[in-house]
Design brief:
Blueprint: H1 3-7, E1 13-14, E2 19-20, E3 25-26, E4 31-32, E5 37-38, E6 43-44, E7 49-50, E8 54-56, E9 61-62, E10 67-70, E11 83-86, E12 91-92, E13 97-99, E14 107-110, E15 115-116, E16 121-122, E17 127-128, E18 133-134, E19 139-140, E20 145-146, E21 151-152, E22 157-158, E23 163-164, E24 169-170, E25 184-187, E26 192-196, H2 198-203, H3 208-222, H4 228-238, H5 243-254
Parallel strand pairs: 1-4, 2-5, 3-6, 4-7, 5-8, 6-9, 7-10, 8-11, 9-12, 10-13, 11-14, 12-15, 13-16, 14-17, 15-18, 16-19, 17-20, 18-21, 19-22, 20-23, 21-24, 24-25
Antiparallel strand pairs: 25-26
């Protein structure tokens, strides 16, 4: 018996056309389809399904019943070969699902060091950055983009094509129909910007000057009588230019669904 065979439970169904590193552990009842790649250090729990096109980088832990690389829930999908890519050190908890992409992007991407809690869903062609947390039962529709260090609270549905900026925090139980500004704290019915994610920024070591510049930008953008165009002009003219304020201005310029205000 090879080392790899010793680490695969005998009840697992593993395609001979899957590429699996020699130290990968695969639990009972797991199904690994063809055209799957699993890098070193991964742990695949019981009853996990890794559909064809799944690409798991190093040190990923997939818990019981999760499904990665299943076909997109998109009526336009015609069976074209696509992928679902999971970045290294990411943890995917029980019954979470990640669909593979469609021909529009070719892949669904989850970045490094992410946590996808139980029952969360990442639909086709989503792009999730690094160090992102999706709490229990978060549901991302197709083509959603979530930037680095964003946190989405439990039982949150996110509309297709929405962009969620870096270091944003979305409260649990709220619907997200529009783009969410970087560094913001959002909540409420309808969803609105409650303020700057100050606690998160302090925990991640942002400088006091950067936080103050963001506070000034947020005051103009979200807590004044200015429209977005006017606020951007005032921020550009009056607020100290920092990497963080430039992130905000860039995000506003790229917003395609309108911003949560």
């Amino acid at each position: 018996m090879s080392v790899l065979e010793a680490l695969i439970h005998p009840s697992a169904v593993v395609s001979p056309r899957a590429r699996i590193a020699s130290d990968v552990r695969i639990g009972p009842g797991a199904i690994i389809e063809e055209n799957v790649e699993i890098a070193a250090g991964c742990v695949i729990g019981s009853c996990v399904l890794l559909g064809k096109g799944s690409r798991l980088q190093e040190n990923i832990h997939v818990h019981h019943g999760a499904v990665i690389g299943s076909p997109p829930q998109d009526l336009k999908y015609a069976g074209e070969p696509t992928a679902a890519v999971i970045g290294r050190n990411t943890v995917i908890r029980e019954y979470a699902t990640v669909n593979r992409g469609t021909k529009e992007r070719g892949e669904t991407m989850v970045g490094e060091n992410c946590l996808l809690m139980a029952y969360s869903h990442v639909a086709h062609d989503c792009v999730i950055g690094t160090d992102v947390i999706l709490a229990n039962a978060v549901n991302l529709a197709g083509h959603v983009e979530v930037d680095d260090y964003a946190i989405i609270g439990g039982v949150v549905p996110v509309h297709q094509f929405v962009k969620i900026g870096k270091h944003a925090m979305i409260g649990g139980g709220y619907r997200v129909p529009q783009d969410v500004c970087p560094y913001s704290l959002v909540a409420g019915y309808p969803l609105k910007v409650a303020g700057l994610n100050v606690i998160g920024l302090r925990r991640r070591g942002f400088a006091v000057e950067s936080i103050r510049a963001l506070e000034a930008a947020f005051k103009l953008l979200f807590f004044s009588n200015l429209n977005t165009t006017q606020a951007v002009e005032r921020i550009t003219a009056e607020v100290p230019s920092t990497p963080e304020t430039l992130d905000v201005l860039d995000f506003v310029g790229r917003s395609s669904r309108g911003m949560v205000k």
